[in-house]
Amino acid sequence: MPKIIFITADNQEYQVDAVTGQTAMDAALENMVPGIDGDCGGLAACGTCHVYADDQWLERIGVARPGIEQDMLLLTDNATANSRLACQIVLEDDHDGLVLHMPVAQH
For residue 5, what is the DSSP state? Predict the structure, then answer.
């Protein structure tokens, strides 16, 4: 059971217990982490679960996947090379301690 750390744009930290196989978005929604909206329900169709992965974690979770995730991030404000959609990050046991930062706002 990995623990995931979400950090808001104003440096509020939310540590949540996730279930292996769950997405980071679902873990955030189940734990009422503010700033993760998940309006499309995890279909990578809205960008309202945009997060920035810490550099140390990006190699483990991977960069945004070609296709729908990369395409959606192109439409998302303030996307960077570290941007991911939390709905596309499937959590594994070795993701314990994963740090995901959130943008100022989701669009």
Answer: E
98 neighbors 1 (Cβ within 8 angstroms): no
The whole-model pTM stands at 0.94
Residue 56 lies in a domain: yes
Q: Total structural domains in the chain? A: 1
Asked if residue 73 lies in contact with residue 79, where contact means CB atoms within 8 angstroms, the answer is: yes
CA dihedral 83, 102, 58, 90 (to 10 degrees): -90
Residue 106 within a domain:
no
Assess if residue 105 is contained within a domain. Answer: no
84: domain range? 3-100
Nearest to 78 by CA among 55, 100, 48, 103: 103
Give the closest residue to 54 by CA, choosing from 82, 89, 86: 82
pLDDT tens for each residue of the chain, 107 residues long: 899 999 999 999 999 999 999 999 999 999 999 999 999 999 999 999 999 998 899 989 999 999 999 999 999 989 999 999 999 999 999 999 999 999 998 86
